[in-house]
Design brief:
The chain contains 8 helices and 5 strands; from the N terminus they run βββββαααααααα. It has 207 residues and is an alpha+beta fold.
Length: 207
């Protein structure tokens, strides 16, 4: 049995109803942030709010995360302003929050006493955005030191492609694909493609 502890998430607390996982904020005081048609929203106490109308304590959390990221990655602020044409701090904050927490899932993006993990979600710009892994830094990608090319390959594996098919699609040598797959297995500490696929589905990379 492969050791999957390196990537298996144990912090995604959720509420079950009839076998379904309910988003945070639907029947509790946590908050689930999500993007809807380019607008940032939040579910809180069973209602949906615009991001700027969420409780101050919620917004302060994301201010702190953004400020910490700017210190750790100086190019983050510059890229947000350049790529998304942000005109003021409020629009920067919303864009940063959308990039890192904009997917609708079952993991609370605000839960008193805990810092939320940055998410991988399909914003429509994956693989094309110059801010990837600089503005948005999904926890599952960063903690496993996965490269942008390896993300592509994980996604293709989850779609059922074999090594030779990936080589054709990415215009790479078969041996290069083999090396990438071997490195992915090593980073995730898994032994087979099935575990790579499970990782991809657990963290929405397959979508």
């Amino acid at each position: 049995m492969p050791n999957t502890n390196n990537y298996m998430d144990t912090k995604h607390h959720h509420i079950e109803s009839g076998g379904f996982q309910l988003p945070a904020g639907l029947i509790d005081e946590n908050v689930e942030i999500f993007s809807a048609n380019g607008f940032l929203k939040g579910i809180y106490k069973g209602k949906t709010f615009d991001f700027n109308k969420l409780p101050t304590i919620v917004k302060i959390q994301f201010v702190n995360i953004y400020e910490s990221e700017k210190l750790e990655t100086p190019d983050c602020e510059k890229l947000i302003r350049k790529l998304f044409h942000c005109k003021n701090y409020q629009s920067e904050l919303q864009q940063f929050t959308m990039c890192n927490y904009g997917g609708l899932d079952n993991a609370a993006d605000f839960n008193k006493g805990s810092i939320p993990e940055k998410e991988y979600w399909n914003c429509g710009k994956r693989g094309k955005c110059k801010g990837e892994l600089i503005v948005c830094k999904p926890h599952c990608i960063v903690k496993n030191n996965i490269s942008l090319r390896e993300i592509e390959i994980i996604k293709l594996i989850s779609h059922g492609l074999q090594d030779n098919e990936m080589a054709i699609q990415l215009n790479l040598a078969d041996s290069t694909i083999t090396t990438h797959v071997r490195n992915i297995r090593k980073k995730l500490k898994v032994n087979n493609r099935g575990e790579i696929i499970r990782f991809a589905f657990n963290y929405n990379i397959a979508l």
